[in-house]
Amino acid sequence: MSSTTTTPTTPSTPERKGRSRPALGVNLRQYGILAALAVIIILFQILTDGRLLYPGNINNLIQQNAYVLILAIGMVIVIIGGHIDLSVGSIVAMVGAITAIAMNNWGLPWWAAVIVALFVGALVGAWQGFWVAFVGIPAFIVTLAGMLLFRGLTLVLLTGGTISGLPDSFVDIGAGWFPAWLGEIGGRDVLTLVFGVVAVVLLVLQQARARAAQRRLDLAREPLLSFWIKMGIAAVAILSLSWLLSDYSGTPYILIILAGLILAYTFVLRNTIFGRHVYAIGGNRFAAMMSGVNTRWVDFFILTNMGLLAGLAGVVSTARAGGAVASAGTNYELDAIAAVFIGGAAVQGGVGTVVGAVIGALVMGVLNMGLSILSVDAAWQMAIKGLVLLLAVAFDIFNKRRGSR
């Protein structure tokens, strides 16, 4: 008599297709700095009796800190790739001097001088990229040498110390506003309000489209509630900004330039092969090389791009000042590096976002403006900014250790 033995069967694993992957939790690194910016704004709004968010102060915050925002966008790519650039302040000064000379001495129109400035900035970045990528000298050393070299060349170019009397069309790049082409309603610029509404609509559509793409590819996503809370906060911030600016002089030209740079470089880092290679090199250079990434050319283009954006920052700062000054750009590299680290970039590389760097630059800008309104001594302002930078890096290290545990 034979007996039949039934072997228990292990339930088969459900097929992945058609199932939604678990949503991502809220990223403390991503939202912590945004919360810190909000707290700083509220704190200074209270301490200054509401003066921080005056329309004129908001306009000045944008125009005075435009150079930091531009440099931070380039610097975050440098730091993600595992490098550092100490020369950007000197490049800003040298390019500003060349721009002023091109208009006043060479007789070039302002737009041609801007093209020359951007070309010189990219050329300088390529020069430094060559030494880093193909000779193998660390970026810290190359850009430290560049900081001294380009500052010296600036002093040679500006023998008189200053070049002023630049064309109004050029000055408007850093200190001008869009005309009220659509008129006014209740004393507010309609064009600025339209810019705000359009920006919100485009942001929501882009983020919703990205989330839908993640769903189609069955990738992990942040919780839906968190997503819409983030969109709501962003919409309120953009509309509030446009509302305040509409009551001043309208939309600054530089604000549109900054918005274009943020969108373009966010796309580059997130959606291009170059962006993925930058993250790969910063995360593990050896593994990236073994995976076929041409690390030399990626390093070269990282520094070339930084030089290009430093050239643009030189144009903007010169336009804002209305002239070229030999001392321009002093400590700009420190402001940019601080903004990137405050914005959540990792010291070791491989981690960081353009939006985070921009938020970090805004933190620095709001601190500067709030402390200035309160008439805090410049020495104490420097001390406070240094403490904020130290705490930001300590927070990054704490997150890493907690994650490893």
UniProtKB/TrEMBL annotation:
PANTHER family with a match to the protein in the record: ABC TRANSPORTER PERMEASE PROTEIN YPHD-RELATED-RELATED, XYLOSE TRANSPORT SYSTEM PERMEASE PROTEIN XYLH
Transmembrane segments: 26-47, 67-95, 107-124, 155-178, 190-206, 227-245, 251-269, 297-316, 336-367
Molecular function GO terms recorded: transmembrane transporter activity
Protein species of origin: Homoserinimonas aerilata
InterPro entries: ABC_transp_permease
Entry function: Part of the binding-protein-dependent transport system for D-xylose. Probably responsible for the translocation of the substrate across the membrane.
Keywords for the protein's UniProt record, in alphabetical order: Cell inner membrane, Cell membrane, Membrane, Sugar transport, Transmembrane, Transmembrane helix, Transport
Official protein name in the record: Xylose transport system permease protein XylH
One Pfam family of this chain: BPD_transp_2
Region spans: Disordered: 1-20
Main location: membrane
Gene Ontology CC annotation, any one: plasma membrane
Localization: Cell membrane
Residue ranges, compositional bias (Low complexity): 1-13
Entry membrane topology: Multi-pass membrane protein
